[in-house]
Specification:
290 residues; mainly alpha; Cytochrome Bc1 Complex, Chain D, domain 2; two-stranded antiparallel sheet; 12 helices; 3% strand; elongated
């Protein structure tokens, strides 16, 4: 029995037999250019899976005849970048931080390398913009416990602060005047008022006047007679508005009674001499360097 074909009366084209709401689908052939493009993509995919990693296996994947991998490409690019920088990195390793600072090309490269190292190792404490926070110094200002010259920043980064495993680490220990019974509660209250008065924040002038004598006997040796600080021993200035642990009376009382002492790692043993020099130049460039 002959098969009956449905032909559209208007176009004269055979239909597929499908109909939606009275609209019939014409059985037109696909455009030849589209078919050849489709066949080409199939051929390309077959060639690709032969040449490049493609098919997943149990514990790995097919490696492809070319042996290419994204990890290998990254390793090659990294090696090429390292080779291009090798000469300048050797110069940075051989020169002092002052000599690096004096060379415009080396300084630019050191700042770029130091910025990258800072983002990986330092932002957790000092902040992404080096603005610091409670207990963590702001590196953008001119308040430096041990000084803000290239050499002093370099030493601090090399050996850290109160870092137990480095014999040359920076150390400054403020006595626990309250916890160890060096001063009584009234004296601590008075000296706290005097310390606040140095920055123009005293609330009790009479107590501040009494605290001046307590300060002279117990604090001036490190912090200076007028609270200007002493970089030689890492004693902060008390006559400005920069407070590492807060500038309220409660904060000052707490610090005088049982002081907190921050710790920073000795970065040279972790990052190496060259990276520490780059960090030094970068931190010095933030605007607070002296």
């Amino acid at each position: 029995m002959a098969e009956t074909r449905d032909v559209d009366q208007i176009t004269g084209v055979e239909t597929t037999g499908h109909s939606w709401d009275g609209i019939k689908e014409l059985n037109n052939p696909l455009p030849r250019w589209w078919l050849w493009t489709f066949y080409a993509t199939i051929a390309f995919a077959l060639v690709y899976t032969i040449l490049y990693p493609a098919w997943p296996l149990v514990n790995s994947a097919t490696s492809g005849l070319l042996g290419w991998s994204s990890r290998g490409q990254l390793a090659e690019a990294t090696a090429a970048a390292d080779a291009a920088r090798a000469g300048q990195l050797e110069r940075i390793a051989a020169l002092s931080v002052e000599e690096i600072e004096a060379d415009p090309d080396l300084r630019t490269m050191a700042i770029a390398g130091g910025r990258a190292a800072f983002k990986v190792n330092c932002v957790q404490c000092h902040g992404s913009g080096a603005e610091g926070g409670p207990g963590y110094p702001n590196l953008n200002d001119d308040a430096w416990l041990w000084g803000g010259s290239l050499d002093t920043i370099h030493t601090t980064l090399q050996h850290g602060i109160r870092y137990a495993t480095d014999d040359d680490t920076r150390i400054s220990e403020m006595p626990a005047f309250g916890r160890d019974g060096i001063l009584d509660r009234e004296q601590i209250g008075d000296v706290a008022e005097y310390v606040l008065s140095l920055a123009g924040n005293a609330g009790d002038e009479a107590a501040a006047q009494k605290g001046q004598a307590v300060f002279a006997d117990n604090c001036a040796a490190c912090h200076g007679e007028t609270g200007e600080g002493m970089k030689e021993v890492g004693a902060p200035a008390l006559n400005d508005a920069i407070w590492l642990y807060g500038g309220s009376k409660a904060d000052v009382l707490r610090q005088v009674t049982a002081p907190r002492h921050g710790v920073m790692p000795a970065w040279e043993e972790r990052l190496g001499e060259t990276t520490v020099k780059e960090l030094t130049v970068y931190v010095h460039s933030l605007g607070g360097g002296q």
